[in-house]
Amino acid sequence: MLVGEIPSSLSNLIELKFLHLNNNNLQGHLPSSLQKCTQLLVVDLGDNKFSGNIPSCIGKNWLNLRILRLSSNTFNGNIDPQLGYLKEIIDFANNKLSGSISCSFGNFSTMILTSDKQLPSFEVLEMWDTYPIYSRSESITLITKGDQLTFSSILYLVKSIDLSNNELIDEIPEEFGYLAGLHTLNLSRNYFKDKIPDSIGKMSSLETLDLSFNNLSGAIPQSLSQLNALNDLNLSYNNLSGSIPSGNQLQTLDYASIYIGNPYLCGDLVNKSCFHGNNTNAISKKHAMLSPMLSIYLSSTLGYFIGLWSVFILLLFKKKWRYSYFKKVDKIYDKVYVTIKIRLNRIVIG
Fold first, then answer.
1. How many Cβ atoms are within 10 Å of 213's Cβ, its own excluded?
2. Which of 51, 85, 99, 321 is the S-S candidate for 78 at Cβ 3.0 to 4.6 Å?
3. How far apart are CA 219 and CA 245, in angstroms?
4. Local structure of 319: helix, strand or coil
5. Is 148 exposed, middle or buried (0-12, 13-18, 19+ CB in 10 A)?
């Protein structure tokens, strides 16, 4: 039930490694003096009333930080690119963060693994023995697969990014594909647009992927079928189109709720034919053709008006040209008039 702001004197604890102030009524901005606490490994400030920007000094000075939980506050502003260099768990859910996600979010050092670089379990444990307190008594509560779970004894194994329920925009960075060691990625309830990056298929350790309630469009990448560890998927309420991919792990994720709210998807799970097995239905083809056709019409119309107004402007400012132009028009008019009159007279006489 703590209230008020974090005192700046807390920064005097320069050997502090674990800071848990979650589930209180603390408010205000995070003091910049906290950058002096360079030994921090875990910071949990979730479920409070903190506001303002997330300080950039976190990514610059807290180089040992492995877990940063700031969920359920009222932080706003852009996510500083320096925060893309954190280690294992980043939870910014339920805030008012805006702007786009930096490409540096593909730089989480402990998540960048490939199939030939994954550490054996005994090496992971040995690495974490550097921080024995962490593995024995630390615990963090996260929302995973729609449930609130508390991790303690296996916390060193958890790799998670949760940016859900904010006001983030633009595209999902392709660089997320580098995070082959990431287990959970939740970007739901934002304003992300354009296609789902095909690089997500390289995130070989991904177990949970939630991209629901955004403005994503285009086809669902077939590469998602390569995520053999995936057991929880949510792509609902977007503008996705085309056929629902199948194969490998996606065969086991046969719930219609995964794709609900995407009216242009087709396939057995949404009870809509894909027209003889085409990967893209008629709607998505129409959308694909719309952009170039629109460009042709716009450029033609624009060219017509520019040319027409160019003539008018020249006639307006060039007196000699204006007289010549109207004289020419009068001659043409007289010639056409005389020709029509003669032909009409011949018809009448005849």
1. 19
2. 99
3. 9
4. helix
5. exposed
Is the distance from CB of 37 to CB of 56 less than 8 angstroms?
no
Which residue reads 């450029």 in tokens? 299
Which conformational region is residue 300 in: left (phi greater than 0), alpha (psi within -120 to 50 degrees), or beta? alpha
Res. 240 pLDDT band, cuts 50 70 90:
very high
Q: Which of 180-189, 268-277, 280-289 has the highest mean pLDDT?
A: 180-189
Query: Please, what sign has the CA dihedral across residues 58, 172, 49, 71?
Result: negative
How far is 237 from 254, CA to CA, in rounded Å?
Answer: 17
pLDDT at 43: 93
Please identify which residue in the block is written with the tokens 């390569």: 226
Instruction: Dig out the tokens for 350 from the structure.
Output: 């005849």
261: left (phi over 0), alpha (psi -120 to 50) or beta: left
Nearest-angstrom CA–CA distance, 143 and 165: 12
Q: How far is CA 180 from CA 92, 110, 112, 185, in A?
A: 21, 10, 6, 11
DSSP conformation class of 14: T
Beta-carbon contacts of 242 under 8 Å, excluding residues fewer than 6 positions away, are 218, 219, 220, 264, 265, 266, 274, 279, 280, 281, 284
